[in-house]
Amino acid sequence: MSVSTLILALLAGLVPSLVWLWFWVREDVHPEPKSMLAAAFFGGILAVIAAVFAEKYIASIVGDASLRYALWAAIEEIFKFVAVAVIALSSGYNDEPIDAMVYCIVAALGFAALENTLFLLGPLSGGEFAKSIATGNMRFIGATLVHIVSSATVGFALGLAFYRGYIVKAIAVILGLLAAITFHAAFNISIVNGEGSDTLKAFSWVWGAVILLIILFEEIKVVKAKTA
């Protein structure tokens, strides 16, 4: 693999995530420090590395494809959340309900950036540039958004529980992760087992979830206004 191929794959994986990052961070009227956003993004990248090893192990012991993809979804959602919890949620910069959503989305974008890069390395190494473009576009409007919505679901649950005690927050994390894993696993399985029309349906409800996510951002802002 040439250095130019690696650089191209990195750029193709990174730029879409940065575009989505710019879009979602604007939802926070009190932006988080750039250093914290960068740390959360890098934490998402590290989560990919840990997830790869866990997913390889799962692949070696689970034969059923649907179950395997569901477990992979669980691994990715848990590892992304762990990264956010370690880096951002325990910091002094997690000081309003919307912050958890923002940090979860940023970590998800870091995760998607490296994951997309890995997916693009194969076709780029083989000189399949048309396939690389198609893969990149599909992941930009599909898999990357799945990561965003799934992680944001956990952040939303935490945002709702922001002013509550530790027990309520723990329950919020569990419920948020269950919802995120279910959404992510459903997308994975529909793409793998479905036909062309099923794939289009999967992408359509992902975009529907994005619209819902925008609404959830407004709900979190209301939680802050009512409590302030």
Protein architecture, described:
By secondary structure, this protein is mostly helical. It has one domain. The chain contains 8 helices and no strands. It has helices at residues 3-25, 34-61, 65-89, 97-125, 129-141, 143-160, 166-193, 196-227. It is globular.
List the helices and strands and how they pair.
Elements: H1 3-25, H2 34-61, H3 65-89, H4 97-125, H5 129-141, H6 143-160, H7 166-193, H8 196-227
Brief descriptors of the model:
228 residues, 8 helices
Q: Assign an overall shape.
A: globular
Helix content: over 70%
- Poorly predicted ranges: 129-137
Helix/strand-derived category reads mainly alpha
Distance between the termini: 55 Å
Q: Could you write a compact summary of the structure shown?
A:
This protein has 228 residues and is an all-alpha fold. The protein has helices at 3-25, 34-61, 65-89, 97-125, 129-141, 143-160, 166-193, 196-227.
